[in-house]
Design a protein that fits this description.
Blueprint (H helix, E strand, L loop, with lengths): L2 H4 L5 E7 L7 H12 L3 E7 L5 H11 L3 E4 L4 H5 L4 E2 L1 H6 L4 E5 L2 E5 L2 H11 L9 E5 L3 H12 L4 E5 L3 H9 L5 E3 L10 E4 L25 E4 L8 H8 L3 E3 L2 H16 L5 H9 L2
Parallel strand pairs: 1-2, 1-3, 4-6, 7-8, 7-10, 8-9, 10-11, 11-12
Antiparallel strand pairs: 3-5, 5-6
Helix pairs in contact: 2-10, 2-11, 6-7, 6-10, 10-11
Bound molecules: NADP nicotinamide-adenine-dinucleotide phosphate (NAP).
């Protein structure tokens, strides 16, 4: 049956709000999961300009929207506008998922748990007692830093262009967190790029970590997935490291959103195939 043929006045609507949003893979991931689960839900894109998150949330509530995936530039703004926050979303001060609870809206953050879930189940890496280095201190980095600490990482070392933001991000990892230097990467089991360096359009950008510091026995993850293999990831692979791009975080954070909205176990395999086959 065509997707549009199953939609009706009773269909539960969710969407991804952000700017830009038209290229987002989130509706594809959500709709693949809904179809696989056989539930009457649909996910669409909601382009919402910076500063308009409050109006968008009011409108969504009035329209009976069942949930929202929240992306740039609204994650911090939405954290201050939902009815209550999960402990993790409160700690991060950022929401990437709004869940309707009988008319009350709960803000969650599934980015970091999605990252760790992909690491464990896709890449076979458990962060427990391992040394991890994260480059960046923005929204994505902060989610990853907190999640690695929550997963029992032995050390979470943060390297960031702006030292103050790096320190604030390292604090999220509690006793296992500290700031460091790129050179620390050579002693780490996991090295993560959580900056836009290497993304399409970042002409002339430098390396997140000099590839000469990377080697076999490490897993190197670039949260960027456009391109699928960044020059840095290719260099890390040629140095013998195992590598993964940002699709794992994208797919698994969307899977947690589907679970939060519908209460069903998400069909992660089908969601992976949807982005791989596109
Ligand atoms: P953000 O909040 O704007 O943070 C950007 C971070 O990158 C900051 O720490 C910033 O350092 C650093 N940075 C930016 N340009 C830099 C440069 N030229 N040299 C060194 N550091 C630089 O962005 P974000 O939302 O965290 O996103 C970061 C990356 O993760 C983006 O590429 C995004 O596409 C990707 N991402 C992927 C997923 C996924 O599911 N795979 C999810 C979210 C984000 P300062 O603190 O010094 O400014």
């Amino acid at each position: 049956m065509a997707e549009s043929a199953r939609l009706s006045a009773a269909t539960s609507v969710v969407g991804v709000m952000g700017d830009p949003v038209t290229h987002s893979l989130s509706p594809l991931l959500h709709n693949t999961a809904f179809a696989e689960l056989g539930v009457d839900w649909v996910s669409v894109g909601f382009p919402v300009a910076a500063g308009a998150a409050g109006a968008a949330l009011d409108g969504a509530r009035a329209l009976g929207i069942r949930g929202l995936s929240v992306t740039m530039p609204h994650k911090d703004d939405v954290a201050g506008r939902v009815d209550h926050l999960s402990a993790l979303a409160g700690r991060l001060g950022a929401v990437n998922c709004v869940v309707d609870e009988d008319g009350s809206w709960r803000g969650e953050n599934t980015d970091g748990v999605g990252f760790v879930d992909a690491l464990r189940h896709r890449d076979g890496f458990d962060p427990r007692d391992r040394s991890c280095l994260v480059v960046g201190a923005g929204g994505a980095a902060r989610a990853v830093i907190a999640a690695l600490a929550d997963a029992g990482a032995g050390a979470v070392i943060v390297v960031n262009r702006s030292p103050d933001r790096g320190l604030a991000a390292a604090v999220l990892a509690g006793a296992s967190g500290r700031t460091g230097r790129s050179e620390d990467a050579t002693h780490c089991d996991l090295v993560v790029n959580a900056t836009p360096l290497g993304m399409v359009g970042q002409a002339g950008a430098s390396w997140p970590v000099d590839p000469v510091l990377l080697h076999g026995g490490q897993i190197v993850v670039d949260l960027v997935y456009h391109p699928m293999v960044t020059p840095w990831l290719a260099a890390a692979r040629s140095r013998g490291a195992s590598v993964a791009n940002g699709l794992g975080m994208l797919v698994h954070q969307a899977a947690f959103q589907v679970a939060a909205w519908t209460g069903h176990d998400p069909p992660v395999g089908a969601m992976w195939r949807a982005v791989a086959d596109r």
